[in-house]
Write a structure and sequence with these properties.
Layout (H helix, E strand, L loop, with lengths): L12 H17 L13 E6 L5 H12 L3 E6 L11 H11 L2 E5 L3 H10 L4 E3 L7 H15 L6 E5 L4 H13 L2 E5 L8 H10 L3 E5 L2 H5 L4 E4 L11 H7 L7 H4 L7 E4 L11 H4 L6 H21 L1
Parallel strand pairs: 1-2, 1-3, 3-4, 5-6, 5-8, 6-7, 8-9
Helix pairs in contact: 1-5, 1-12, 2-12, 3-4, 5-6, 5-12, 6-7
Bound molecules: phosphoric acid mono(formamide)ester and norvaline (NVA).
Length: 304
């Protein structure tokens, strides 16, 4: 059966932990003769309906390092951008390629791609989830603390695709996740229910950033207006004004706490420059880990 990666729940918890271990191994092996090329002779397409820097480059490089050919499609220059059905695109891409990385708007489009594709589909970001980013984030947390289970994570800001992915990560690896969100920007109840049904870790939603940050190992945030929400930028700036991760908020966290951000970041909005560019920030390791974590994912799903 073809396996897809729509959300973190598409991996069993022990598979997810093993995959992060493999990502760390591939990081060590990079550039050595021992680095594997399990996708030799294959091709993987990266279909983008939204802008991307990290996802595009980390997948292109990672696919090539595993021995396969990366093919990037920018929606506006394809027939998808002119309305060709996702299902037709999925069938045709499955004939040419051995995997599809898909970045899109509604998560239903990822589901439609998965239903019609006969090769693994990887969600490269949808309106509801960004699971590839969480692979890298969990790897970065592992590298910093040597473990995942039991760590306390503070999410500050929008209950968006990144927040949803942290919620499923908490349930999969047993984190204590506290999200501080302004009224009207809380995560979807369905995602919270999904995590609670898994039963590991804990997830709670509070209003005060300080309450979330208190005693945290990890403090993380994201832009106030995600792709597709640009028209709401002004209203969101007002709603999120008290939700900046600054030095005072970081001081509530543990002394060894780290700061993560999926990037791109807006200094002076969701994060103060002295935090993202300061000693607690792990954002560059986090961005680099996209490459290693996705290579582990591609190897697992495509090479089997
Ligand atoms: N974090 C992330 O997905 O970055 P890009 O939008 O640049 O791919
Ligand atoms: N929440 C952001 C993440 C970008 C990587 C967005 O969807 O635009």
């Amino acid at each position: 059966m073809t396996r897809h990666f729509r959300t973190l729940v598409d991996l069993e918890p022990d598979e997810l932990v093993a995959l992060i271990g493999r990502a760390r191994e591939l990081k060590r092996l990079r550039g050595t003769a021992a680095h594997p090329r399990p996708l030799e002779g294959k091709a993987v397409v990266i279909a983008l309906e939204k802008a991307s820097t990290r996802t595009r480059v980390s997948f292109e490089v990672g696919i090539a390092e595993l021995g396969a050919q990366p093919i990037t499609l920018i929606s506006s220059s394809t027939q998808m951008g002119r309305g060709e059905p996702i299902e037709d695109t999925a069938r045709m891409l499955s004939a040419y390629c051995h995997g599809v990385v898909y970045r899109t708007f509604g998560h239903d489009r990822v589901e439609a791609m998965c239903r019609a594709a006969t090769v693994p589909v990887i969600n490269g970001l949808s309106e509801t989830y960004h699971p590839c980013q969480l692979l890298a984030d969990l790897q970065t947390v592992q590298e910093s603390f040597g473990r995942l289970e039991g760590l306390r994570v503070a999410w500050i800001g929008d209950g968006n695709n990144m927040a949803h992915s942290w919620i499923l990560a908490a349930a999969q690896v047993g984190l204590e996740l506290v999200l501080a969100c302004p009224e009207g920007y809380e995560p979807d109840d369905a995602v919270l229910e999904r995590a609670r049904a898994i039963g590991r870790g804990s997830v709670s939603v509070v209003r005060e950033p300080a309450q979330a940050a208190e005693g945290s190992h990890v403090v993380t945030t994201d832009v106030w207006a995600s792709m597709g929400h640009e028209a709401e930028t002004r209203a969101r700036a007002a709603a999120f004004a008290a939700y900046q991760v600054d030095a005072a908020l970081m001081a509530r966290a543990r002394p060894e706490a780290i700061f993560l951000h999926c990037l791109p970041a807006h200094r002076g909005e969701e994060v103060a420059a002295d935090v993202i560019d300061g000693p607690a920030s792990r954002v560059w390791a986090e961005a680099e880990n996209r490459l290693h974590a996705q290579k582990a994912l591609l190897e697992h799903l495509i090479a089997g």
